[in-house]
Amino acid sequence: MLLIPCPWCGHRDESEFTCGGEAHIQRPADPAALDDADWADYVFMRTNPKGRHRERWCHSHGCGRWFNVERHTLTHDIVAVYRMGETPPDHGEADGT
Amino acid sequence: MTRYSIFSLARNALGYHRGWPRAWRSPEPAPTYDVVIVGGGGHGLATAYYLAKEHDVGRVAVLEKGWLGGGNTGRNTTIIRSNYLWDESAHFYEKALQLYEGLSRELNFNIMLSQRGVLNLAHNEHDLKEMSRRVRAIRLNGIDSEILDPAGVKTEVPVINISGDVRYPILGASLQRRGGVARHDAVAWGFARAADARGVDIVQNCEVTGIEIANGRVRGLQTSRGTIATRKVGLVAAGHSSVLAAMAGLRLPIESHPLQAMVSEPIKPVLNSVVMSNTVHVYVSQSDKGELVIGAGIDGFNSYAQRGSFQVVENQMGALLELFPIFSRLRMLRQWGGIVDVCPDASPIVGKTPVDGLYINCGWGTGGFKATPGSGWAFAHTIAQNEPHELNAPFTLERFSTGALIDEHGAAAVAH
Q1: Mind listing the pLDDT tens digit for each residue in B334-373?
Q2: What is the value of pTM for the model shown?
Q3: I need a labelling partner for B399 at 20 to 30 A (CA). Which of B54, B112, B289, B320 fits?
Q4: Any CB–CB contact under 8 A between A33 and chain B?
Q5: Which chain B residues have a beta carbon less than 8 Å from that of A40?
């Protein structure tokens, strides 16, 4: 089980959280300009790296707030935790993003 | 290939079983092949077998990074069924089930297919209506399916609790009598042996590290055992599909998640069918050794680690005891995880890619084992003809931009 450091509540068991999938997927600024392939990329395609992955979590059974986690998908090590809207910590790019 | 039979068994018994030959060769990879399949699980080996048997494509190799069937083929709960809602899936999975029915004879390898019936339980009014719709759709596609009332469920599964005094009472079930289980390792080994006998090179401990592409065409593969030139590559790597696709510059609509399963200590035969419940979230059958084989939902986070979190195991046990209070004293013997490639519409991707000569078979998610022979059969056709068979034509990568999704979330054993 993961031990996840919520930016507001501190370390809590994974069972209190819900994983919201890949982070930093930007809603298209000009939706009308997109073709079908662009929409498919935005809606369905995912990076799914074997390595560091930036993802969203919600402390659904705690403070109820969303935040970002950078986690390694092979070791499950949590590399960084940062709030929504914050820039990811600069220690090199996450794998595959 | 030595044919397995009662006579070869008797002959080898006389020699104290010391004379059995290897079931397949272990060749060094050749510098050139006509087709290379990446991934030596059930789907990859089945693809190679049907390529060699039904298509004239020249030399075929299967490259496996670890050992044969060491991924999801050896980690699933061995359930086989074809009770899918939509026409596209029903036909595809039914093809697989029909191939399974003749597979032991075809491969001359006992895959221990046991068509003991698969029950999907209904626990509320919505489940009953959905089940009724589903059973009718399945029967319209010519696939066997029937509806049981609680008494009927009790007849099929005497140890199940059909009392009304529980949180999720059993109100009925659908039953596919032709569904059941098979020995998962035997499926991989049987296809490997039969493919090897037809000249396919199966190369284990050979990891693909790069895909060489020139002018939009596949030219070869870089591997941990040297470069291999080829014009056609089939990627069949389940949980690692995104990693391989990225080598060709492709993005897939796939996320890799752990899916855990476990077996109990062996007990006397108590469960003669496969029981699944989407609502309480568990599926269970009993192996020939007497162990209960139990599975449930995926872990919510992306992972390549082949292990998941304990609360998923805990929920699974809670669900099992809701259906079978009699199992409360059972101890669990082993637990493991596999990495499943989950597609947004819970249907696979079997077809061509934007790169010429590069084909992909992935996205089977939590339910690929049941499709193994059908998947390999259709994928072999796709690679050989450079065009999908009508069975897998709807399962393209393009459906995510055309919008022609095949939503089979409801056909999964449990909601994922």
Answers
A1: 999 999 999 999 999 999 999 999 999 999 999 999 999 9
A2: 0.96
A3: B54
A4: no
A5: 253, 400-401
